[in-house]
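Worked example 3 (structure in, sequence out).
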């Protein structure tokens, strides 16, 4: 089994390359032949992550999807309107990320029920196992491998450094980012959640339209 198990998407090639470089530098005793640094399989065969989606959907997925589709079903969002698309891309990604971060925090702290015949540790949280594996099983060992942070820094610089990272995570242009932030400030920066996101979306669209008529 490889250190990194993924599907066969073409978008993760750079991640696989970097993972192989870091593993080779930090743990040269593990050869690619015996212990591949990564393995790509079809999504249907990647059972850990595919099975996990059920819990994501139960915890967040259906809720998010219902609210997302509400904007379309109620005629609030028009996908053929460039302004609507830009406002959507400005307001929704941070909200979705916040909800997923919250689910991740919950899941990593939830207690795994005890099972006598279970091979893997149980009776504690994933975070506790990560921090102190021996707290769950006396004979457990911390097998983490430390990587060279200077190498990590060099690899990041190859990809454009902080500027490249910011660009990759930018869902709208910098010009629109400034425009939307001005409109949001004019609305007195209301907190955005699933109960009011489409209301604030409508207010932002109207405010940006007003700002554009004034310039």
């Amino acid at each position: 089994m490889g250190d990194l198990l993924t599907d066969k998407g073409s978008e993760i090639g750079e991640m696989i390359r970097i993972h192989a470089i870091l593993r080779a530098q930090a743990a040269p005793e593990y050869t690619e032949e015996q212990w591949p640094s990564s393995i790509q399989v079809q999504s249907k065969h990647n059972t850990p992550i595919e099975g996990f989606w059920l819990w994501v959907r139960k915890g967040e997925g259906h809720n998010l999807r219902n609210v997302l589709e509400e904007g379309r079903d109620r005629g609030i969002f028009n996908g053929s309107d460039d302004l609507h698309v830009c406002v959507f891309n400005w307001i929704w990604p941070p909200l979705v990320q916040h909800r997923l971060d919250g689910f991740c925090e919950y899941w990593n702290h939830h207690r795994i029920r005890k099972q006598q015949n279970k091979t893997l540790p149980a009776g504690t949280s994933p975070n506790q196992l990560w921090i102190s594996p021996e707290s769950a099983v006396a004979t457990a060992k911390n097998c983490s491998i430390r990587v060279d942070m200077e190498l990590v820094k060099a690899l990041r610089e190859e990809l454009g450094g902080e500027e490249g990272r910011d660009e990759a995570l930018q869902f709208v242009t910098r010009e629109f980012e400034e425009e939307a932030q001005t409109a949001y400030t004019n609305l007195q920066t209301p907190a955005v959640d699933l109960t009011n996101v489409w209301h604030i979306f409508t207010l932002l669209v109207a405010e940006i339209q007003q700002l554009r008529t004034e310039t």
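Notes: The two ends are 60 Å apart (CA to CA). Residues 46-214 form one domain.
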